[in-house]
Amino acid sequence: MLADARRGHFDVVLVWACDRLARSVRHFLEVLDELNRLNVEFVSFREQLDTGGPLSRAVVVIISAIAELERSLIVERVRAGMRRARLEGRHIGHRPLDIDHNAVLRQRIHGQSISQIAKTFSISWASVSRILKQAQPACPKGSLQTHPQVQENSQPEIACFHERHLLSHLLFASR
Fold it and tell me: In the β-sheet with 49-50, what is the strand arrangement from edge to edge?
């Protein structure tokens, strides 16, 4: 918006409320000063204010300070509620996936692509990748090697003895 104001594309900025333009008083005043330098008038629909006179500017600053205080109070209440929920033992956020990690690894060993596995288990491609990465720590760093030309839809050539042992254990344990 400020870039367009600098180019002279408009001469009035109309916002629903002062707090929609900026989140802090400082930012609001910086934007307001730049608009004034560019001879762009600021009008707030809800507060029925324009910044044409000094009294209107003072009222706009007071309103923006109250809006910033209100926003800070909301953030504080949300954090307090989350803290209380944690103390009460309630889970906050997305629930962890209830997926059989061994089954995902078996599917990959049998040559299925990450996309095919994701469709099979109705999970995202990223979730499958994360499960596969979590299986790698069984190998010493740098010992898991895939052929440089391995693509997403092919089976990786596993060069780590520990991982081969882990994966063969998974295959036989599932039978």
Answer: 12-15, 41-44, 49-50
Of 126, 113, 124, 167, give the one whose Cα is nearest residue 144.
167
- H helices within the chain, ranges in order? 2-6, 25-37, 54-87, 101-109, 114-121, 125-135, 161-173
pTM equals: 0.45
Task: Give 79-98 pLDDT, tens digit per residue.
Answer: 999 999 999 998 888 877 88
Rounded to whole angstroms, the Cα distance separating 67 from 47 reads 12
Q: Where are the domains of the chain?
A: 2-87, 101-173
Going by C-alpha positions, the residue among 106, 114, 109, 121 that lies closest to residue 152 is: 114
Helix (H, G, I), strand (E, B) or coil at 95: coil
How sure is the predictor about 164, in pLDDT bands with cuts at 50, 70 and 90?
low
Please tell me which of 11-25, 57-71, 75-89 the model is most confident about, judged by mean pLDDT: 75-89
Considering the four listed CATH numbers 3.40.50.1390, 3.30.310.50, 3.40.190.10, 3.20.20.370, the one that applies to the domain covering 2-87 is: 3.40.50.1390
CA contacts within 13 A on the Cβ side of 80: 6
CA dist 113 → 73, 95, 119, 124, 171 (Å): 49, 26, 10, 13, 18
Give the type of residue at 5. A
